[in-house]
Design goal:
503 residues; 2 domains; Neurolysin, domain 3; homodimer; mainly alpha; three-stranded mixed β-sheet
């Protein structure tokens, strides 16, 4: 019988191998988006499938399960840190083991077919082509929820994968408050006579200068280019192969220099989180955020709260004037700030502004929960979608491509993912409120392009925890409260009152 | 009991997974050289070690061994193509199985330590620091040779890994002939009054134009950029993740535009081979060259025989004049051709010209065989090295950094690798002779920048075979002869007689 120390060492070695495989899978995917020549796709598909199967086999092996069970049984003999490792691994393992391999296999097959059908359906705006796949994926998701178990709603079992401990019944009152107050705010904004001038934006912004600006801002934020890099890709994303190898991507729109910048700052927020995990969590499952909502809080804090603030533009507007040959000579911080925060109810989530964004999420949450709880069928989705778009955003949906077919998530069978975007907004505002209390001259520093106090605060209170605590507990410990919509609504109402001259 | 067809399917699936792991390992390494930020090295080391261990476990699993044994026993029932798959897998498996895991482990540890000691020793030119590691690696290589088995010399067991079927006793007379005839040729060249003018080369050649030229030439050669890409790295190399995802790297020397070009054309030759394997060999062990020498024959054929020919420069010199703002206006094809083929006995193998290159190899071969056969000890290496440099190249070795410490190979425990470089030269010339017979207007096409007939010929006679035949058999079938030094010596003597006005 091996000693507890030996068991712990073996456990760390075995989970280290699982992490190696996951990081390698991430590299296969990063390369596919960033470097791979087009004809490489077929082989890459095989490589990813093989690695994923090996990862699953290794993680759920009987050796790993026995080891975790033995260590969990001796939890009282382990240090606090060791207990974190064991508890989190046991949690993931339990979820993985509850899903029968045949179900995992059927889901993978259905998702692959559904994804291709969705691509076709969206390009032709033909919901009917996607409908049978959506119905199948909903049935599989419900089967999955039954395997995983839940107390109130099968949706909770799915949501838990992305936002541990969160439930539909906790989300509903939060989302109701958001829908009411954000709806009212948007209505006032739309009617305001003070609308931003964005005509000056419409010019050909040089690509090289755009990339230079994104790199400067990333560096200023504290992104370590010795431990990461930025590339271009069709859809911006962040990935990590290690705490010291974190990669972001961005995309350039020559008609809008704010597009690449906000992508980079958003992904930079994710990346600072990944670069900020303690080195002792390296090659373990703890080098991760406790939830997608918490991860998203970091990207949205940097992108929206800081990157679209007036102090931020006080610092960077002169840089825009000097970097871009095409920039107006008299461009003012206020001009950029107003353009960067323009509110306009529209059809597409990924293009939505800060004021309307959550409304897009709430609409999806309502449809998702209804599907998973069985109160509507897949065929009713377009009708419900279009009705809610009218209700929440006052927009008429001209076709399903710009309606219920716009997002990739459902085609991947990801139900319960959307709410984490809205929670990211709430968490960010909750953290901001506490940061402003702790650091009275926070905005003065932003106005000088200095972000080290913000990053230091986030490192200490958020990044350093990894996933050793849940998002709920982290927020409660740091801000004194569990997730609540009030700080976000206060932030939003104050900011947009100033922008749109609301009384 | 499963049917033969089912067994064959399972075998292809299992070997496909092994190939996926090997290709993924290649991606981890490519990324490390081309993209990885510096701090990513530690995690990358773990990822590579984990993947390599998994690959070994998968490839040598009892399931794989049983499957191969069962299929081999029913060889007469298999098609010719199926037999190729089984035979080649059985060959690799037998080698892998003959090496005890403890020996593999000790070699990996010794190599890792030796590599770091070599880096230090080379930077300080202190052979003594590397000596104990070299002695240890030689002992391990001899142990390895005993496990693998051999008929005449333990060196043969090592050489066989890189050049199947080749032996020290077959190489010796070939190398003796080369040493004599190349030595005599170099002596005449050095004494020739007609030395090339290279003063015009000494200018600042624009990096962007250099890269543009390499891409144009690669495209002209037939490199498919939809199924591959070129990047920059410190040491140029080629790697392949699939027949349709083959990547080359190059490096730019702003004082010498021929440096990047010859790197790209060399790696392009390797890459055309990799892109030329039949698609039915995809995801199998047969999508490979039969030997390193055969692989090298492709890179050297393109780099030296074609890329340093006068017809080649008749086509590309005008491009050099138009691409480089700094190029002399009256630059002539003859000028570039002479500069590209300048002969100068020197200390460093990787900088050696076509006439002296094999002499560097022969020197290493003599030292390697003596070490492995036990006729000298590691401590005698510098003395023997310096003596042979004097004998073959007339060069005095000023320090071991520019002598026996210059190459990485021995620090990796790779004994038997060097001869494949020289064999590449021989194979290339042997193939050229046959190509010239088959295609009388070969050089007219080169002079017009048309390479499709050459590539087509290589595709048909070399690339299409993958590793289904040995290098020996391939050469014999295509050229009527096994490896022989005559065609190379004829090529060399004729070319350099013209260049240096030798009677």
């Amino acid at each position: 019988m091996s000693s507890l120390t030996e068991k712990m060492e073996l456990f760390l070695r075995k989970t280290g191998e699982v992490v190696d495989l996951r990081r390698t899978l991430a590299l296969l995917q990063w390369d596919e988006e960033v470097c791979m020549p087009p004809k490489g796709a077929e082989a890459r598909g095989h490589q990813i499938a093989t690695l994923a199967a090996l990862e699953h086999r290794l993680f759920t092996s009987s050796e790993m399960r026995d080891l975790v069970a033995e260590l969990a049984a001796e939890a009282s003999e382990l240090s606090l840190g060791e207990n974190d490792f064991v508890r989190e691994t046991a949690h993931d393992l339990e979820r993985a083991v509850r899903l029968p391999e045949s179900l995992v296999h059927r889901m993978a097959q259905a998702q692959s077919r559904a994804y291709h059908a969705w691509v076709r359906a969206r390009s032709e705006s033909a919901f009917g082509e996607f409908l049978p796949h959506l119905a199948g994926l909903v049935a599989l998701a419900r089967e999955k929820a039954e395997c995983l178990g839940y107390a109130e709603s099968p949706y909770d079992a799915l949501l838990d994968e992305y936002e541990r401990g969160m439930t539909a019944s906790r989300l509903r009152p939060i989302f109701d408050t958001l829908a009411e107050r954000q709806g009212a705010l948007v209505a006032r904004i739309v009617e305001s006579p003070l609308q931003p001038d964005t005509a000056w934006m419409d010019r050909d912004w040089e690509e090289e200068a755009q990339l230079r600006l994104t790199e400067e801002v990333l560096r200023d934020m504290g992104f370590d280019f010795e431990a990461g890099r930025q590339d271009k890709s069709v859809h911006p994303f962040t990935t990590s192969f290690d705490t010291e190898d974190v990669r972001v991507t961005t995309r350039v729109n020559r008609r809008d220099f704010l597009s690449a910048l906000s992508s980079s700052v958003h992904e930079g927020g994710h990346a600072l989180y990944e670069q900020g995990f303690p080195l002792r969590y390296r090659r373990t499952l703890l080098a991760d955020a406790p939830s997608l909502g918490m991860h998203e809080s970091q990207s949205r804090l940097w992108e929206n709260v800081i990157g679209r603030s007036l102090p931020f533009w006080r610092h960077y507007t002169p840089r825009v004037r000097s970097l871009f040959p095409c920039a107006p000579e008299d461009l003012s911080p206020e001009q950029v700030w107003r353009a960067a925060n323009r509110v306009e109810p529209s059809l597409i989530r990924v293009e939505a502004d800060e004021c309307t964004y959550n409304l897009h999420i709430i609409l999806r949450f309502e449809i998702e929960t209804a599907l998973i709880e069985g109160s509507i069928e897949a065929e009713h989705v377009p009708e419900l979608w279009n009705e809610r778009m009218r209700l929440y955003l006052g927009c008429e949906v001209p076709d399903d491509a710009r309606g219920c077919l716009q997002d990739i998530h459902w085609s991947h069978g990801s139900f319960g993912y959307f709410p984490t975007y809205a929670l990211g907004n709430l968490y960010a505002a909750q953290l901001l409120e506490k940061m402003e209390q702790d650091m009275p001259n926070l905005w003065d520093n932003v106005a000088q392009g200095k972000f080290w106090d913000i990053l230091g605060w986030l490192r200490k209170h958020v990044h350093a925890r990894g996933r050793a605590v849940t998002a709920d507990r982290l927020l409660t410990e740091v801000t004194g409260k569990p997730p609540t919509p009030e700080p976000f609504l206060r932030y939003l109402e104050e900011k947009y009152a100033a922008l749109y001259g609301l009384g």
